Amino acid sequence: MPEVYAARRSRLRGRFNAAGSTAALVSRPANVRYLAGPVPEGAVLLVGRTDAHDLLVCPGAADDRAAGARPDDGLRVQTLPGTEGDPAVAAADLAVGTGSDCLAVEEHHLTMARHRAIRSVLPSSRLRLSDLDRAVEQLRVVKDEEEISCLRIGAEIADQALGELLESILVGRTERHLALELERRLVDHGADGPAFATSVATGPHAGRRAHRPTDRRVEEGDFLSVCLGATYRGYRSQIGRTFVIGTTPAQWQIDLYDLVFAAQRAGREALVPGSAHRDVDRAARQVLECAGYTEGLPAATGHGVGLEIDEDPQLAPAAMGKLDACVPVTVEPGVHLPGRGGVRIDDTLVVRPEADGGPELLTITTKELLAL
């Protein structure tokens, strides 16, 4: 995909040129990967006046760093000698010799110490620093079809791993054991690894956000909520489902599940190009609030996914901006009742116009309330 990476760097170049910079130093790992392909850990990217001036600077003396990392073939690569030296500082030093007069850096990613180190190698009279801000993150919001294909495959892997787990015996097994088994199944089915730490929550833990699995064992009558995702070629998906263990659900479980399902459906139906991010959140949130659930709701109904599991846009009450087509997001409302448990239903979808069938659902495991 050399031409794809070159085109992405060209779009970035247009942005920082328009802001008055002649070069940019990209250090955030997901942003480097977006612009250069799979790269060794710790690599940074110097984007210059033209594609011929672009340079990937990699740390040296780590044979395993290069394993499986193959950046854009058309990109020049420089590896630092030995184990010493910061690639970001080295790249800034190299920018001095390219004739650039203003270097844009990702201030939101750099530590203060690293920022000072970069400044120390730049003669103030020859090269100024400016803030690239979140220019690369903004470019990453709308995905091309190759990126969406990776997300789709990752979602299929997660669906498969979850489906296999549901066919096994669950009563008596611990949350921790089930989470480890899910992560093993993800890799067995072709994932690079989990997209984030897999959450398995039972009984009073069910429905909690980012619950860390414990040694609590699954019991008859429990709610079981699972949230997992697969990473495939760097792209991360997310799915969350809630089930009842071993018996006919109690009425309160049915009522709570139906409520969260209705909220999730409202959020999914609001995923239309041109919709405000906060309106998607409002569509799901008001279903829960109208039922009397106003405390302890998630801060956001969903978020973007891609090279990171939580990226722009944010579907939250105060979020600004509107949805574009080809933007993958999660819709993940939930309710947790302290001491009793709760429900979460998470899907990964791609925003599509109505003419193309509306939002594309990537995570297809059933959302029926199953008794396992």
UniProtKB/TrEMBL annotation:
Keyword Protease: yes
Creatinase N-terminal domain residues: 8-142
Protein name as it appears in the record: Aminopeptidase P family protein
Transmembrane segments: none
Keywords: Aminopeptidase, Hydrolase, Protease
Gene3D superfamilies in the cross-refs: Creatinase/methionine aminopeptidase superfamily, Creatinase/prolidase N-terminal domain
Gene Ontology MF terms in the entry: aminopeptidase activity
Residue ranges annotated for the Peptidase M24 domain, each copy included: 150-352
Pfam families according to UniProt: Creatinase_N (PF01321), Peptidase_M24 (PF00557)
InterPro entries named among the record's database cross-references: Creatin/AminoP/Spt16_N, Creatinase/aminopeptidase-like, Creatinase_N, Pept_M24, Peptidase_M24B
The keyword Ribonucleoprotein is annotated on this UniProt entry: no
